[in-house]
Amino acid sequence: MADNKQKIGDLSVSPLSLGGNVFGWTADEAESFTVLDAYAAAGGNFIDTADVYSVWAPGNQGGESETILGNWFASRGNRSDIVLATKVGGGRPEPRGLSPAAIRSGIEDSLRRLRTDYIDLYYTHYDDPSVSVEEIATTLDALVREGKVREIGASNVSAERLDSFLTFSTQEGLARYAALQPHYNLVSRDTFEGALADVVTRHGVATVPYYALATGFLTGKYRPGSAVDSSRSAGAAKHLETERGKKVLAALDEVAAHHGAELATVALAWLAAQPTVAAPIASARTLTQLPPLLAAADLDLTQQELDLLTTASA
């Protein structure tokens, strides 16, 4: 993976963020360690998780991903080499919320599971409209001042609330969101482009998209008549029913064939080339799934190829 680090506030991150949502879900601890070791060996340093991962798996309570990562840090002694992102405010069946007490308890729980005394990038996972942006901003700023958090970010937030937070934190000299983590990929562009993208651009915020491969659809393994053994197959296969999905696959096939690359590599390279995007997030539950993700950092698409993909995904 190319060593072209991207900036998120004062953090220098790899151009691909390794998603931790599969750790403790479709990948057990041993499998997770194998993927994590390979990612780090390839020069990767940006890992994304959340306090609720992976509560949706049978028998899980939430926090499994953070626990596995904490065990990995402890066994490898490499915590200072990794830019670690986690989140607060999620939860099942009811969200934790973003009250000062919820954020305070959330960070302490995450620090304990991760076996660390600081988080590099701390996201509000889901917005909580019942709490004012002023209260959220003040609470997060205190965590930064205490050294528990280096940078803060937001996910699943409206353009209006994001703009209000950034305006207030700037005016008051508080820690401000350095990153937005939106749902964004070739078959889901309106979840970011438009008002959210405008706010991010105006305030100089980096973008770290999740669902970068549309739950696997953009790997190309989902085709008409094919059956895929995956926990995400239903969500991915739905794109086969849309004209956009079919056009995107055709465009990806064309560009991938020209470069001798995997479709996932091309899809991530397109996303990385979009304005404000610092590092797409993609997960790998097995070692064989990792190389196409890492290769995106080394793939330079021509403007013609970028335009082809953009037009197909319109």
UniProtKB/TrEMBL annotation:
Q: Which residues form the signal peptide?
A: none
Residues forming the NADP-dependent oxidoreductase domain are 16-310
Name the record gives this protein: Aldo/keto reductase
Q: Which residues form a coiled coil?
A: none
- The species this protein belongs to is Streptomyces coffeae
Which Gene3D superfamilies did the record assign? NADP-dependent oxidoreductase domain
